[in-house]
Amino acid sequence: MPETLLEIQKLVFAYGHGGRVLNEVDLTVNAGDFIALAGRNGSGKTTLTRLAMSLLKPSGGTIYFQGKDTAVMTTADMARSVGYVFQNPDRQIFRDTVAQEVAYGPEQLRFSPAVVNDSVAWALSMTGLTELAGRFPRLLSRGQKQRIAIASAIAMRPQMLILDEPTSGQDPWEAQNMMELLTSLNQQGITIILVTHDMELIGQYASRAIVLDRGHKVFDGTPATLFNGEIDIAAWGLIPPTAVAISRQLPGMNAQQVTELVRQVMPMIQKGGEDYS
Ligand SMILES: Nc1ncnc2c1ncn2[C@@H]1O[C@H](COP(=O)(O)OP(=O)(O)OP(=O)(O)O)[C@@H](O)[C@H]1O
User: Fold this and answer.
1) Residue limits of the ABC transporter domain (predicted)?
2) R_g over Cα of the chain
3) Ligand 1 centroid from CA 215, angstroms
């Protein structure tokens, strides 16, 4: 059995005296999961991740991290185990060089200087930033800044990484690099929760999809099940990945990703070619 990292029970949340933004949400996150958290604008995704990080406190229900009630944990306690990457990387970057920026978290956690150096070197290398270690972060591209935010988070050696729309505003090449980075971090044992509106990314990279709709958890399962055509995902404001939409038009096809669609379609095309030759 995989270790349970996060256990959310009957979570309710309202901002101030407003209405409920999250309603009786139950959720278990296991070590090793690669979760995509989806749902229409305002469905409660960011709020849920902020609660999971103890940046907000529940109005009702309980959140346990490794069996411990997070109500008694500070944001600093959570930061030892969970890295959080904000949607806008500029909110997280304030030091003069990339290396100093990435060292900030491990220093705050009072790692020894040798461990800080090792952690920074590892985080820069994982994120492809080693060459940029001495550069001024604010002058780098959005994709590079997003990588700095991830490097800063993983330098604290978290068990789990929560990322809020890390590919927003990036070109497809940067977004793909980012997803490959997250895949490789996940393969190294870091549990990933990725907030995203991008169904293509969910189909291609996530092992589990969770959908929120108007503060309720309405789906928790594999991307294959989410996109199998039997669930009315349009009711939650979602559309299937292109590969799924195309493959539904072709008899016998069940691709979730473009590469898989091409693999499934190629024999048909080759056979068609032979018929014409
Ligand atoms: N600081 C706040 N004060 C009051 N209401 C808020 C606050 N932040 C978010 N909300 C409201 O809470 C609801 C959930 O917002 P949240 O940002 O969690 O949704 P989301 O699914 O992340 O949306 P998006 O995809 O647009 O980022 C929305 O109705 C939003 O307007």
Assistant:
1) 6-239
2) 20
3) 10
Q: DSSP per residue over 169-209, as a string?
A: T--HHHHHHHHHHHHHHHHTT-EEEEE-S-HHHHHHH-SEE
Angle at CA of residue 216, ends 79 and 21, nearest 5°:
65
Q: Is 49 in the pocket of ligand 1 (CB under 6 A)?
A: no
| 75 pLDDT tier (thresholds 50, 70, 90) | confident
Cβ of 41 less than 6 Å from ligand 1: yes
* Structure token pair of residue 272: 């068609």
Q: Ligand 1 centre and the CA of 176: distance in Å?
A: 27
Helix or strand or coil: residue 107?
A: helix
Q: Ligand 1: distance of its center to the CA of 106 in Å? A: 30
Instruction: For residue 171, give the DSSP letter.
Output: -
Q: From the CB of 215, is ligand 1 less than 6 Å away? A: no
For the record, the structure tokens of 105 come out as 């978290």
Residue 106's SS3 state is helix
pLDDT digits (tens, 9 = 90+) for 8-50: 999 999 999 899 999 999 999 999 999 999 999 999 999 999 9
Quick check: helix, strand or coil at residue 101? helix
CA–centroid distance, 44 to ligand 1, in Å, is 6
Any idea which residue has 């491990």 for tokens? 106
CB 204 within 8 A of CB 179: yes
Give the HSE-up count for residue 7: Cα atoms under 13 Å, Cβ half-sphere: 8
DSSP code for 58: -
* Interatomic CA distance for residues 267 and 264, integer angstroms: 7
Give the residue, by CA position, lying nearest to ligand 1 atom 24. Answer: 41
With bands split at pLDDT 50, 70 and 90, how would you rate the model's confidence at 275? Answer: low
Distance CA 60, CA 163 (A): 24
